[in-house]
Amino acid sequence: MNKSILFTVIIYFLFQFNTLVFADDFMELLSKATNAYKSGNYAAALMYYDKIVEQYPDNAGAHAILGTLYLEQYEDYPRAIESFSNAIKYDSSQAAHYSYRGIARMKAGDIDGAISDLTRTIAINNQKNTPDAFAYCTRALLYSMNSKYELAIKDATEAIKLQPKYPEAFHYRGLSKMSLAHKTLSMQTMDSGIQDLNYAKEQCLQKYDMTEYQNVLESYKKALTAKNVLERELNKSKGK
Q1: I want to staple 110 with a disulfide (CB 3.0 to 4.6 A). Which of 105, 146, 157, 163 is the partner?
Q2: Which residue range(s) make up the domain with 228?
Q3: Closest Cα to residue 79, out of 60, 99, 57, 101?
Q4: Closest by CA position to 71, among listed 125, 13, 124
Q5: Is the pLDDT score of 15 beyond 80?
Q6: b or e along 126-160 (b: 16 or more beta carbons within 10 Å of the residue's beta carbon)?
């Protein structure tokens, strides 16, 4: 997540504060914390948000912002998980709290826990009639990591329905189809996966997202190699 996207997340959580009920000292801390983040002084921002949490421990927004800083700026996943868990404790209605805790759990290697969190995210969003492609796409990746390829394909397809030009969704669906093709010995599924990866490449170029393009390109090369291996396996099974 780049800085501009992270700041959008920060602003989102700030709207949960309902600052009218707080005293001047809170507003001063909040102003200092926000300015520190905007200037890139993340250590100072962390210090100020820590002080807010100390003084207002039941403030879900402050816990969520701490979690976001730990997750994105410090890669301290246990503390990120703890902070988002506190945010959920005081406000369990926010899908974003579960979504970002799920990402932190994924980074920490807890794939089952991450799937559980993304499932809750999707449920909350759907209850509010605000389905989110990112949540489906992330859970697709998690299912793929757990070798649940059919579920991964289903989620990636849902993400694509919501956001038709979503490179990551096509990427994850393509990889899952490639893995499923080997499992089922299906050349049709393999070709469909390669088609998804090719489309993901095109979308990355249109968006000038060269980082994701390189990721997809590597997957595309692996898919072509996997197709050759599958062809040999199929020919061998036919006695050719």
Answers
A1: 105
A2: 164-240
A3: 101
A4: 13
A5: no
A6: eeeeeebbbbbbbbbbbbbeeebbebbbbbbebbb
Kindly report the backbone phi and psi dihedral angles of residue 135, in degrees, each rounded to the nearest multiple of 5, phi listed first: -65, -45
Cα(75)–Cα(108) distance, rounded to whole angstroms?
Answer: 10
For the stretch 210-238, pLDDT in tens is: 999 999 999 999 999 999 999 998 988 88
> Which CATH number is 46's domain given?
1.25.40.10
Q: What is the pTM of this model?
A: 0.88
- Quote the CA–CA distance of 150 and 170 in Å, as a whole number: 14
> What is the domain count for the chain?
2
Task: Find the angle CA(228)-CA(151)-CA(141) to the nearest 5 degrees.
Answer: 75
Give the torsion through C-alpha atoms of 71, 75, 76, 79, to 10 deg: 0
pLDDT level of residue 55 (50, 70, 90 thresholds): confident
Contact 155, 161 (CB under 8 A): no
Of the residues 91, 113, 139, which one is the last residue of a structural domain?
Answer: 91
Task: Tell me the CA end-to-end span of the chain in Å, nearest whole number.
Answer: 49
Which token pair is 193? 């996966």
Residues 229, 207 contacting (CB under 8 angstroms)? no
pLDDT of residue 139: 98
The rounded Cα 139 to chain-centroid distance in angstroms is 8
Please give the Cα distance from 172 to 119 (Å, whole number).
17
Helix (H) or strand (E) holding 74: none
Residue that is written with structure tokens 């820590």 in the block: 50
